[in-house]
Amino acid sequence: MTPEERHRERMQRKKELVDRKIERATIDRGVLVVNTGNGKGKSSSGFGMLARSLGHGLRCGVVQFIKGTFSTGEEAFFRQCGGELLDYHVMGEGFTWETQDKTRDIAAAQAAWAIAARMLADPDYDFVLLDELNIALVKQYVQLEQVLAAVAARPPRQHVVITGRGAPDGLVAVADTVSEMRVVKHAFEAGIKAQKGVEL
């Protein structure tokens, strides 16, 4: 058997396995995605899914729980391009080590959660991105029980993405897809400041 024939045979077996999995995937409903871990890319992945959803003409909502004191490229881009399909809220007061005001941080997180909860209860939203919600959960600025109840009761076809390091075990347990980003290297550790298009 030639190398080309062996390759074709392996690919045929793989195709048969994948086709069987596709046939078994018959459930059609919204999914809950959690992006967590200490590595870079949690929010970026969520915003990539937002772009994909908007490209399909889905009605989308975004609530950013932490990033709030500086303008980011994703905010500028999606506000320009999202149009009537996008409801975008930057609700954070900034990173907690910057604000140094726990009362203010809790109030900002609670205000953000009020908007998020409204979106999760509204069947007009096809896709909801709750950026950095995990941090608010870890710090107990928002209660996990509230979030679990809201995602469980959301409209059946609504997709939800929750980002941020330290996703609580209870959230991981109910999520459909969980990705954990791991740090291998980061430019900041070498003294390189945050760059537009990369971190900002």
TrEMBL record:
Protein name, entry field: Corrinoid adenosyltransferase
Enzyme class, UniProt record, top EC level: transferase
Superkingdom to which the source organism belongs: Bacteria
Alphabetized GO MF terms: corrinoid adenosyltransferase activity
The EC number(s) this enzyme carries: 2.5.1.17
UniProt KW Cytoplasm keyword: yes
Catalysed conversion reaction: 2 cob(II)yrinate a,c diamide + reduced [electron-transfer flavoprotein] + 2 ATP = 2 adenosylcob(III)yrinate a,c-diamide + 2 triphosphate + oxidized [electron-transfer flavoprotein] + 3 H(+); 2 cob(II)alamin + reduced [electron-transfer flavoprotein] + 2 ATP = 2 adenosylcob(III)alamin + 2 triphosphate + oxidized [electron-transfer flavoprotein] + 3 H(+)
Protein species of origin: Dyella acidiphila
Role this protein plays: Required for both de novo synthesis of the corrin ring for the assimilation of exogenous corrinoids. Participates in the adenosylation of a variety of incomplete and complete corrinoids.
NCBIfam families reported in the protein's UniProt record: cobA (TIGR00708), PRK05986.1 (NF004637)
UniProt similarity note: Belongs to the Cob(I)alamin adenosyltransferase family.
